[in-house]
Structure formats: structure tokens, C-alpha cells
Design a protein that fits this description.
With 300 residues, the protein is mostly helical. The protein is built from eleven helices and no strands.
Length: 300
């Protein structure tokens, strides 16, 4: 029953996250006006706005003008519900559970927004960063970096809230500066932007929640996912004939062979690093920050 409650709570929150994902990139209010069709502007009735089910009984179309409704909406609601249940099953009912519920919401908004419009909004990153710092003072990060530094440098153990806040600041600084350094080096050697500052700000937010170790693992896993899946996506786009018409028109103008031109275009396909970092951050939360990890050596 508790899991079912978390799922219901999650799909309701997921409905609100859909609003954030749709409106924040355009600088629109997430409070008003209420949900409405973007074409006919007809307000969506309360009974049509039920998470997941509303999309199903509308058959994915606006009741008034039959404009197709993206399946993104029920999928985000379902994903949020599932991740909320995962938070409960991983951390039980505790302060940490609610901390990670907030984190899951932030990551979903950033991950999907970057996938859709290649943007990681400051309106999500900076409030998330502040929230991560504030929560770290009350729910310390199990990282150990601040404890080690306090013992080695100050020869005493600082209060728990100071250690938690320090761990959050160390994680934010490490995650953001590491990506910033990589971005600067990429631009120096390749002569073009490799990533936007949105990724740097996102890692400051993630680091404030997961600490230095978690930030390092997030970047490691995120870049690995980005490399493997990114290469697969580029090969798939080339095999599917993406931008084939563009390459043929360029070839007729004597700019090169169609295959070479198409590969040149496909290879510059912009991959959403923030999406991969978001997926990696969730993996870190559920498989590194999880209290169950402490018992893994005893499982046989």
C-alpha cells in the first residue's frame, strides 16, 4: 500500500513536471494559465487531466480540435511514479527519501528538457543548487571528504551540519569545475564549443546533492553513456539515411561525394550531455548512495 501511495503521488507530481518541461524553456509561468490545448487554447477539463489515464481515454488527442498530444506526457508521469517507488524501496520512509524525491524531480526536468530542446535552464539549476546545499545541512551526504579534511587540516571533527554543507560544496565545485575545464580544453584543441555552460551548472546542482565522490561517478558514467550511446545513435542515423537529401544537393554542387558529406553532417550531431549526466546521477543515487550498498559484502 505504501508503494502504491508513492506511485500515485509520483504520477501526480509527474503531471506537474510535464508543465515545467513544456513551459520553463520558453520562459513561461508554470502556475498560470492552466493546462490548455496549444492550438485551440481550450482549457483541459479536470477529468481529462488525470495522470496517464487522461491521455489514454482521449486516445492521445485534444477533445476539441483533435490535435495529437505527445506520448511524452504519460511517459513522464509513469517514469516519475516508478522513480518515486524506487526512492521508497531504496531509502524507506526517512529524511533521505524526501531529499531524493526532490532530486529525482529536478533530474527528470533537466534530462527531458535537454533531450527535447538542448537546454538546461537556470530556473531549474540554480534553485536546485540552493536546495541541495540547504538539505545537505540537515541530511548530511555520506561522502567522507569533508570529514577527512577536517581531521587532517583542523585535527578535529566539525559539527554534522558543517560537514554536510562542506561535502555539498566540495561536490558542486568538483563537478562543475571538472566539466568547465574539459569544455575549455575541448575548445582550445578542437576550435569549437564542446558543451554549454548549462552542463557545468547542472553538475554544480548534482554535486550539491551527491557530494564529491558522487559527482565524480556521475561524470564518469555520464560521459561513458554518452560515448557508447552517442556512437550508436550516430551510426544508426547514418544507416537510416538521415540528411540524405541535404548530402545529395551538396554533392550536385560539387562539394563532395554523398556518403562522405552525409557522414560529415551526421558526425556533428549534437548529443545532449545533460541527458546522459541525469541518467548517470540517478544510477549513482540508487546504486551508490543507497544504504543497501553497505550490506552488499555480506550477501552471498
Amino acid at each position: 500500500m505504501v508503494s502504491f501511495f508513492f506511485f500515485l503521488f509520483g504520477i501526480v507530481i509527474g503531471s506537474f513536471l510535464n508543465v515545467c518541461i513544456s513551459r520553463i524553456p520558453g520562459g513561461l509561468s508554470i502556475v498560470s494559465p492552466g493546462s490548455r490545448c496549444p492550438r485551440c487554447l481550450t482549457p483541459i477539463k479536470a477529468y481529462d487531466n488525470v495522470p496517464i489515464l487522461g491521455w489514454l481515454w482521449l486516445r492521445g488527442k485534444c477533445r476539441s480540435c483533435a490535435l495529437p498530444i505527445s506520448p511524452m506526457y504519460p511517459l513522464i508521469e509513469l517514469l516519475t511514479g516508478i522513480l518515486f517507488v524506487c526512492c521508497y524501496l531504496t531509502f524507506d520512509i526517512s529524511q533521505a527519501t524526501f531529499k531524493w524525491l526532490f532530486f529525482v524531480c529536478l533530474i527528470i526536468v533537466l534530462t527531458v528538457t535537454d533531450l527535447r530542446v538542448r537546454m538546461l535552464p537556470d530556473a531549474v539549476n540554480w534553485p536546485g543548487f540552493g536546495l541541495g546545499l540547504g538539505l545537505a545541512a540537515f541530511i548530511p551526504i555520506d561522502d567522507g571528504a569533508a570529514f577527512f579534511l577536517s581531521v587532517r587540516l583542523l585535527h578535529r571533527v566539525l559539527p554534522a551540519w558543517v560537514l554536510g554543507l562542506t561535502d555539498a560544496l566540495l561536490g558542486a565545485a568538483f563537478g562543475s569545475l571538472l566539466l568547465l575545464g574539459a569544455s575549455v580544453l575541448y575548445k582550445i584543441f578542437r576550435g569549437r564549443e564542446g558543451m554549454g555552460l548549462g552542463d557545468v551548472k547542472m553538475m554544480a546542482m548534482v554535486g550539491a546533492f551527491v557530494g564529491l565522490r558522487g559527482a565524480f561517478l556521475t561524470i564518469l558514467l555520464g560521459t561513458l553513456l554518452g560515448s557508447v550511446l552517442g556512437a550508436a545513435i550516430i551510426v544508426a542515423l547514418y544507416a537510416a539515411g538521415w540528411k540524405q537529401d541535404v548530402a545529395k544537393r551538396a554533392a550536385r554542387r560539387g562539394l563532395g561525394k554523398p556518403g562522405e558529406l552525409r557522414w560529415a553532417v551526421v558526425s556533428k550531431y549534437q548529443l545532449p550531455l545533460g541527458t546522459f549526466l541525469g541518467i548517470a546521477a540517478l544510477l549513482v543515487v540508487f546504486f551508490v548512495e543507497s544504504p543497501l550498498v553497505a550490506y552488499l559484502p555480506h550477501w552471498r
